Amino acid sequence: MSTRLRDVALIWAIPILLGIALATGLMWLRTSDSRAAVEEAATGPVQRWTKVAVDLPTSQTLFPPGNGAAIANAQCLICHSAGMVFRQPPLTQDEWAGEINKMRNSFGAPLPADQVEVLAKYLHSIDGSQSPGGRSVLDGQGS
Amino acid sequence: MQRSTDGPSDLGSQPSRRRFLARVGGIGLTGLLGASAWDAMAATLAQLPFANGRRELVTNFPQKGAVLLQRTRPPLLETPFEVFDQGVFTPNDRFYVRWHLANIPNVVDPATFRLNIRGHVRQPISLTLDDLVRDFKPFEIAAVNQCSGNSRGFFSPRVPGGQWANGGMGNARWQGVRLKDVVDRAGVKAGALHVRFNGLDAGVMPQTPDFMKSVTIDHARDGEVMIAYAMNGESLPLLNGFPLRLVVPGWYATYWVKMLNDIQVLDKPDDNFWTTKAYLIPDTPFANIVPGQTGVKMVPINRMLPRSFFTNVQDGAALKGGQTTTVRGIAFGGDTGLAKVLFSADSGGRWQETRLGPDHGKYSFRQWEVPLHLSSPGPHKLMIKALNAAGIAQPDHANWNGAGFMRNVIESVSVHAA
Q: How far apart are CA B230 and CA B238, in angstroms?
């Protein structure tokens, strides 16, 4: 029951916080000072610069249980949310090893070499292979 | 917490559209891979038309309306395709979003922001946003911004990366100043080769290569490449690069560096990771190779190719036979204007020219439309093909490369006349 209450509270808190942020932003727009208005008259259309402050959503999603999930949670989530992995097409274990090594060699993931195999096996077991997408092909570029 | 989509009513009334978006209650969805409050908020699901293509339509990103969630962090957000039926300019709050590195400033203060121009110049300069607006001649251009990997999800065989459908693109009126005017203010020295662009974003790990892109000095000074401080008449949304974004008309969006704060003129080729190791394509027509092909010369991705899309008819739609329907969509020429957009109602047997809407410049989307009269009941395959002013036509067969870049095959939809 308490988790349910928490969920409900969160669901209501989010739009309220968004509303407060929006109202604050509108206030900024209204308080553009008279000096800016004078400059606008002198130089034509002026871009009104106001400070922008936003909150970016975070992902709480963890990798599903399995041998290698702890490594995935500790390593992959440093740089990106888990959804990127779940939305990939099916990859073979070797292809996942290639992706993991790209993260290590090109992007600095602090993943020990001796964890690559177990993580690749795990990612292969949980990736998009539930769908009949067929084989995919790995390029290995950094993009 | 349900929130309806903003699709136009003419699309919303079609049965196929109802199939496309399955509206479901929020809480029940979340069990699969770990629930969160954000998941619970997402009340609408979309099924992109490829395997593992289920995506949430979310509204929780700042300054953004309903967009398809490809990745929360760093954000990867797709424009729902029905937005492209509403006009040739993509609203800022529906414009797709793509970041490489997760360390994105969430506060940008114009009072302290500076754009630095340095390197192989006579006098390095540091400009405030007001300097840019006041001291340089305003420039505006309408241009399509398209992710190199737009439509990657349709690649067959599939390739890893952001699994976009066709909404990894958008078209805007970009307002700002010419890059040429800005680098010339600093004074480009003889021997300059490239100009490299960096933004405020950074990797989480110090070892992660900072995201930078470069173009040749001649390209930088061509009078079209620009620094935008507004899109569609408003400040850029933070996720589209507030306060400044490089605009490279006709070139893929990887070059359009967001939150641009550093411009470095180089007197030697740019050797940074993102130029030399990433965003490479086979140096072949349409960047096309056979899966598994090796030994191909790779070059940095560059100019866009022509594309065209249906926007008011979806695959699987039921159309009334015996009466005339207007079929419409959008097209663009890539790195040059459109010559014509051709339509076929018989799987590519005969092609007819479509009527083009207003021309907003050679880099912009342009609307096309054609009257369609399906006299015989049953299935029909409609196809649309753009030809650009350089004589390049969309290919009959999908191009393929291992990074999933530059898809531009002729689009088709299967409809049923009843």
A: 11
CB spacing of A60 vs B61 below 8 angstroms: no
Interior/surface letters B132-152, b for 16+ CB within 10 angstroms, e for the rest: bbeebebbebbbbbbbbbbbb
Strands B44-47 and B54-58: antiparallel
- Contact assignment for B208 to A79 by CB distance below 8 Å: yes
What are the strands of the beta sheet with B212-216, ordered from one edge?
B125-127, B115-119, B260-266, B194-199, B212-216
Query: Which class is domain B115-279?
Result: alpha beta
Tokens representing B13?
A: 């009334």
Show pLDDT as tens, one digit a residue, over chain A (143 residues).
Answer: 455 555 555 565 555 555 555 544 443 333 333 333 333 334 444 567 999 999 999 999 999 999 999 999 999 999 999 999 999 999 999 999 999 999 999 999 999 999 999 999 999 998 654 433 344 555 555 44
ipTM, two decimals: 0.87
User: pLDDT tens digit string along B284-308?
Assistant: 999 999 999 999 999 999 999 999 9
Name the residue among A21, A61, A99 with its Cβ closest to that of B33: A61
3-state secondary structure of A53: strand
Peptide bond connecting A45 to the previous residue in cis, omega within 30 degrees of 0: no
Nearest CB to A79; choose among B69, B111, B204: B204
Please state at what angle helix A116-126 crosses helix A93-105, rounded to 10 degrees.
Answer: 130
Q: What is the CB neighbour count within 10 angstroms for residue B375?
A: 8
CATH 3.90.550.10 fits B307-417, yes or no: no
